[in-house]
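Pipeline run #58 for the internal structure catalog. This entry was flagged by the ingest filter as a single-chain record with no existing model, so it goes straight to prediction. Upstream metadata was stripped on purpose; only the residue string is passed forward. Reviewer on rotation: M.T. Logging verbosity set to normal.
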Amino acid sequence: MACGKRALAFSALVLSALLLWPAGVVHGVDFSARAQVDDDRVEINAMEYPWSAIGRVNAGGRGHCTGFLVGERHVLTAAHCLYDPRAGRWRGAIEIHFIAGYQRDRYILHSKVTSYRRAKAFTYTLEPTAQAAVRDWAILTLEKPLGRQAGWLGMRKLDGLMGSRIRAGDALLLQAGYRRDRAHVMTAGWGCRIHTVAQRGRLITHDCSVIKGDSGSPLLLYADGAFYAVGLHVVDLRTPDNVALAGVLSLGLFHPDGGERDAASALSQAALRWTDGQPPQAGSEAATLPLVTIDSLLRRLGYLQGGDDLRAKEERRALALSRFQADSGLTNNGHASLAMLGRLLLATPR
């Protein structure tokens, strides 16, 4: 039920810098769920990394959330996605499935969930508080090592220095998931701007649109030529002055140095390390480069035109990338890469 009826109201503090605020600045208030559809989001190919590491968490045949791989057999998602409010109980692992690379009812990478661990202190409620939101996490253990085929995301802390880089245009925040209005395709939005940071840095709000279905999706960071997960979407919300925001649990909770004991212990017991991500292995049906997204951004920026002939398309892409690189003062080689995806995202208006 993620990001729908669950709503928080945050004090309307617009920050010009990434600051850490005490718990008292956030207050739980009942606000109506967000209803609008964000037409600025872009459809992306779920079978291309890094998107392939993000998938649907299907729970009991009664809806879905989003989740993302952080290892070969482990997925991070929002704990409230695993609760059955009709039956008033936590779902058993046998009721939960994870699907990576899902696009228009077509899926190849699928696994049952054999077990899961959630925050001990988390209690499901229709009227969540900020204190509950920072405990709204779960780690799923998969029957199959889907991460080998889909890849997985590395984790990184979102600190004040990175906040300054984001504001300066040297790094970028984005979100991708399976939202309610486009439940069978993955879509992404980027250029997310930090609004507030609360609960001693554990709860982040930003202005990219999230709605029901996006819960459990990662807040992604592009920096230094790579993509990382820095947050876990747990709720959509509105401020008292009706500003729509997304509420994100900081993945700093899981860091072995300075994180929450319960979260860091869960990561350690799952034999997961705080490391960089991993693209799909050679021979996987998931692609290691997001060429569809790169082509889409090149078209939006006016660099790419033409038909669908594969060889001609590859030649046009190389030429378009070369022109973009030359205009942007980058090394001019015409090569597609994750770093080039990030540069295109930085250059493309929201």
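catalog note: Residues 135 and 271 are 20 Å apart (CA to CA).
catalog note: The two ends are 27 Å apart (CA to CA).
status: ready for reviewer M.T.
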